Amino acid sequence: MGSGILRNCKVKLSWYRPKHTLLLNYRSSLDAKRVAERLNGITFRGHVVKARLQMPHLFQITSFTVILDEVPDDAEYMQALVRRAKSVSCTIPPCHTHSLESIPRLLDPFGPVDSYEELPLDKAKAKRVAFAQFSSPEAVVNAVKALNGQRQAVLADSPLWVEQIFSVKYVLPVRHFACIKEELDKLRDVHSNAKVRYYFDPNTPQQKATVRVYGPEAKMVARLKLRVEKLVRGE
Q1: pLDDT, tens digit (0-9, with 9 covering 90-100), for 184-213
Q2: What is the β-pairing status of strands 127-134 and 113-118?
Q3: Coiled-coil regions in this chain (predicted)?
């Protein structure tokens, strides 16, 4: 279980998952036009498809292109969408896999970073979330002031949000977590000024559940922390 100590040297970082543009190629303009009309506006695996026909050149007779805009950063999704479109050829762009390396580097100028934890990808959510802990409160203040809301080249010119928070983390055996999950969900749903979030790390030898309580107001986080700890103790 976690130490249960609230820390104010921590920040929450969030950013939109990058999106891509796919170019689908067809042998005839009629095929390309039909595909663009068929795909545009449909909902595919929870995402609205934005498709348009690239205007051909005056004397173009082969390789007509359909452009898919704002495609989610998900290789499996992109491959399935291309299969549905029955494209003659399409290059799947590489997904964004470098945030674990690039985001901490943005924090380096403000002081030593004791820990950095990027939460597992949730395909149902548009944003990625990470937590970082500095060695001093001053570093937190400076990082928030300089980075919050600023567009970053490493995120394809998308903004990065940096928020100072109070946070506590607990690591529980999966069976223990399963016994209190329903009550944790209730706490999560009724508290707005402090949040409860849990997730699993599939890379650990013995799978554990991580439960995190966090928020910008120490008093609210402390109250929720006490309620979570009662559940953890079985009270």
Answers
A1: 988 888 887 888 888 876 665 567 888 889
A2: antiparallel
A3: none
Residue 215 sits at φ, ψ, to 5 deg, of 170, 170
Query: What length is written for the chain?
Result: 235
60 — phi, psi (to 5°)?
-75, 130
- Domain residue extents for the chain: 20-91, 165-234
As given in the structure block, the two tokens for residue 213 are 């309580």
Q: Where are the alpha helices (DSSP H) in 91-190?
A: 99-107, 137-147, 174-190
Query: Nearest to residue 4, comparing CAs of 235, 230, 160, 178?
Result: 230
Residue-wise pLDDT for 72-126, tens only, equals 877 788 888 888 888 877 777 766 655 557 888 999 999 999 889 888 877 778 8
Is 157 within 8 Å of 148 (Cβ atoms)? no
**Has domain 165-234 been given CATH number 3.30.1370?**
yes
CB half-sphere exposure, 154, CA atoms < 13 A: 14
C-alpha triplet 17, 21, 25: angle, nearest 5°: 150
Say how far apart CA 103 and CA 152 lie, in whole Å: 9
